[in-house]
């Protein structure tokens, strides 16, 4: 009766207000590590501040945080989770084109059934995020959908509407029907991508799903895809706590991190800096151009790098490099953004990167390629610089102009203002409340 009265109330088209008993379960593989985990966790916090009972259900809870629940605990659970991950990879091994793209494709043949978990059963809305690598299989999703609860799915990459790849590159087969997949060793008309595509098509057919994309770029692709074009679409960015990610005293940040006070510092970071999609090749080429062409740059610039970095890789950079590996402390991360003069994003394909949002929130301009959702974030030559895709000279030009030829302070202020206006927690949470409102009203 309580749910029925809530639905009746929702049909009045009024937004849910603070104090309602709406229960949302946000489902993501983990609570930390990777952009989707960060975004889902931030959304949980933003919703809770708006009076929504939001809980995050994950396979692996890395931190003991309120509102984050793992589907299991202990040694046995961890071993089973690892087993599922390995089994999925072993299934894909005969199909993979090469080891470099091993994790660019997820067959979702192995997963855990969470459809009877108490948080799922109690929830008014099931809100999916990133569920791959042995967490949820296609069969797991089928059981969730069979519950008949409203489904909201925030897309953090392209996997939901392709035959298995997370980013398709230049391939557009997903628009009609995946096949001849460039990620597979033996692409063909009835290859693995084609078979998975058909499974997803049957799975999604009768599900009244609300699809949320963080960028207009991803919305345009998913909205045109065969698998999702019939669904209801919303475009909502990821949220960020602009009271935490904010400008700090640059020299104090450098002192805490042990960095030089008298150098221009470039920051680059990614979960795995060697992921070809992250474009480190073009960053290295751009740095080589700057080192050879501009003595001013060569003598006054150093590089900061965070993320997974192979041992000894720092020695290949043409400038003195300070490596911070994986940064788990948010305070250290904010210090890094503030210590840097610019953040460089040479990614070749990306959605709405948290790193760009974080840097801009700290008042640090971003130089990156004009790809994915990045042009929606950066106003060219006003709050940062948009370089031509795969053009190392253009990337080098952006770094040099931003550091030495532009009104640096004005760019930083414009970057910060953009984030506060468009990506703050309250703004994003209110937009999600409208989606939940609509999903329940249509139930």
CATH topology of the largest domain: the name is: Rossmann fold
Q: Structural class of the secondary structure composition? A: alpha/beta
Reading off the top of the CATH hierarchy, the class of the largest domain is best stated as Alpha Beta
Q: Cα distance, first to last residue?
A: 15 Å
The CATH architecture assignment of the largest domain turns out to be 3-Layer(aba) Sandwich
Q: Per DSSP, what share of the residues sits in E-state strands of 2 or more residues?
A: 15-25%
Largest sheet: 7 strands, parallel
Order of neighbouring strands in the sheet with most strands: 3-2-1-4-5-6-7
The oligomerization state is single chain
> Mind telling me the C-alpha Rg?
22 Å
**Broad shape:** globular
The count of domains is 2
How many helical stretches? Answer: 16
Ranges where pLDDT stays below 50 over 5 or more residues in a row are 1-19
Characterization of this structure:
The protein has a seven-stranded parallel β-sheet with strand order 3-2-1-4-5-6-7, with helices on both faces. Helix 2 (35-49) packs across helix 16 (425-441), helix 8 (250-257) crosses helix 11 (330-339) and helix 9 (280-293) packs across helix 14 (392-405). The protein is built from 16 helices and 13 strands. Helix content is 39%, strand content 15%. The chain has 443 residues and is α/β, with parallel strands linked by helices. It has two domains: 2-239 and 425-441, Glycogen Phosphorylase B (Rossmann fold, 3-Layer(aba) Sandwich), CATH 3.40.50.2000; 250-422, Glycogen Phosphorylase B (Rossmann fold, 3-Layer(aba) Sandwich), CATH 3.40.50.2000. It starts with a helix and ends with a helix. It is globular, with a radius of gyration of 22 Å.
């Amino acid at each position: 009766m309580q749910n029925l009265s809530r639905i009746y109330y929702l049909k009045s088209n009024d937004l849910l207000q603070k104090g309602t008993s709406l229960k949302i379960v946000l489902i993501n593989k983990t609570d930390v590590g990777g952009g989707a985990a960060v975004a889902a966790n931030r959304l949980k916090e933003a919703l809770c501040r708006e009076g929504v009972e939001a809980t995050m259900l994950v396979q692996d809870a890395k931190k003991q945080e309120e509102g984050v629940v793992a589907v299991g605990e202990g040694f046995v659970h961890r071993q089973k989770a690892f087993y599922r991950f390995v089994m999925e990879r072993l299934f894909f091994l005969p199909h993979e084109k090469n080891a470099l793209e091993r994790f660019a494709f997820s067959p979702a043949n192995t997963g855990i059934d969470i459809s009877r978990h108490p948080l799922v059963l109690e929830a008014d809305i099931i809100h999916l995020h990133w569920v791959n690598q042995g967490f949820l299989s296609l069969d797991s999703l089928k059981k969730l959908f069979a519950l008949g609860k409203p489904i909201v799915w925030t897309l953090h990459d392209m996997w939901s509407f392709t035959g298995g790849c997370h980013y398709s590159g230049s391939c557009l087969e997903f628009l009609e029907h995946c096949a001849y997949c460039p990620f597979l060793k033996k692409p063909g008309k009835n290859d693995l991508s084609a078979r998975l595509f058909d499974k997803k098509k049957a799975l999604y057919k009768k599900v009244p799903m609300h699809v949320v994309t963080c960028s207009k770029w991803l919305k345009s692709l998913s909205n045109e895809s065969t698998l999702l074009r019939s669904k209801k679409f919303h475009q909502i960015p990821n949220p960020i706590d602009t009271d935490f990610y904010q400008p700090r005293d640059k020299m104090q940040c450098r002192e805490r991190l042990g960095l030089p006070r008298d150098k221009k510092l470039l920051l680059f970071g990614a979960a795995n800096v060697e992921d070809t999609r992250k474009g480190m090749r073009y960053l290295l080429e751009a740095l080589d151009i700057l080192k050879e062409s501009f003595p001013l740059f060569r003598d006054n610039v150093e590089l900061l790098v965070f993320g997974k970095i192979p041992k000894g890789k720092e020695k290949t950079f043409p400038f003195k490099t300070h490596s911070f590996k994986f940064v788990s402390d948010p305070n250290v991360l904010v210090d890094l953004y503030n210590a840097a003069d610019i953040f460089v994003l040479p990614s070749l394909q990306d959605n709405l990167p948290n790193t760009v949002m974080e840097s801009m929130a700290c008042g640090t301009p971003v130089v990156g390629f004009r790809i994915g959702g990045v042009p929606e974030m950066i106003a060219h030559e006003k709050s940062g610089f948009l370089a031509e895709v795969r053009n190392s000279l253009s990337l080098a030009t952006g770094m040099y102009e931003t550091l030495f030829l532009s009104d640096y302070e004005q760019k930083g202020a414009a970057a910060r203002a953009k984030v506060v206006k468009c990506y703050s927690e309250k703004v994003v949470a209110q937009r999600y409340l409208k989606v939940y409102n609509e999903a329940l009203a249509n139930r």
